């Protein structure tokens, strides 16, 4: 058997044809190429079990949400004084908070610009509509935001609906989890809460500077009531799916097919088998913070 390695965009030599594995084969040998052979650049480097283990570890690293980001942001603003970072200690009432570069009498340094608003008309809501800022603490820890976050909740007759988002780049080495290393977010959540139960759906991605540290949420759902798009009510276990970015930059998709916390792992269309990932703590933590009831 004679094989040729291909470069991108180069056709096979005359008398040969391209196999499904990305190599050129003589025409009379094409029938020896397995039909299910994956392309040469689509060979998994992780087993299904390893995917489950990595997802469990990453999901346990304090996934940031809009309320957690708000609390940290306002805590650091209130650590300043009346002249730095703003002209008033009532930061929220102003709506716009210029951080033009100053150090407060309490030792906190502020640089950049931010604009934050919140209110309780027709429910509770808040939004960082402009975030390009850096805040350092006296011990050297710092918060950097290059993005926005928002949340809103509506409560009526003992039932609530809520939604939130966080997009941009965030780092906060004064905390634990994802933000301690810094990372990018494009993350949305929505849910309901009431006497019959509560649930939250997560969509979007979160990534860190380390290889193999990206998660993509594909209608991932936690709840003891069925989700709005037919997600299962699995209590503390997830339904829906999420994907792990491997060291090679490719994605491994885990779909939870029932309420066991287990599902099939798919890589580039290949079924790698079943695995389990314990991410119940992540769902419980997010629900505890974002549920307005």
Break the fold down into its secondary structure elements and pairings:
Elements: E1 3-4, E2 16-18, E3 24-26, H1 48-59, H2 66-78, H3 91-94, E4 96-103, E5 109-119, E6 124-136, E7 142-156, E8 159-172, H4 178-181, E9 183-194, E10 197-207, E11 214-223, E12 235-245, E13 251-256, E14 262-267, E15 270-276, H5 280-290
Antiparallel strand pairs: 1-3, 2-3, 4-5, 5-6, 6-7, 7-8, 8-9, 9-10, 10-11, 11-12, 12-13, 13-14, 14-15
Report on the architecture of this protein.
- With 293 residues, the protein is α+β, with helices and mostly antiparallel strands.
- The chain folds into two domains: 3-32, no CATH class; 48-290, no CATH class.
- The chain is built from five helices and 15 strands.
- It has helices at 48-59, 66-78, 91-94, 178-181, 280-290, and strands spanning 3-4, 16-18, 24-26, 96-103, 109-119, 124-136, 142-156, 159-172, 183-194, 197-207, 214-223, 235-245, 251-256, 262-267, 270-276.
- The chain has a twelve-stranded antiparallel sheet.
- A hairpin with a 5-residue loop joins strand 12 and strand 13 (251-256).
- The longest helix is centred in the first third of the chain and has 13 residues, at 66-78.
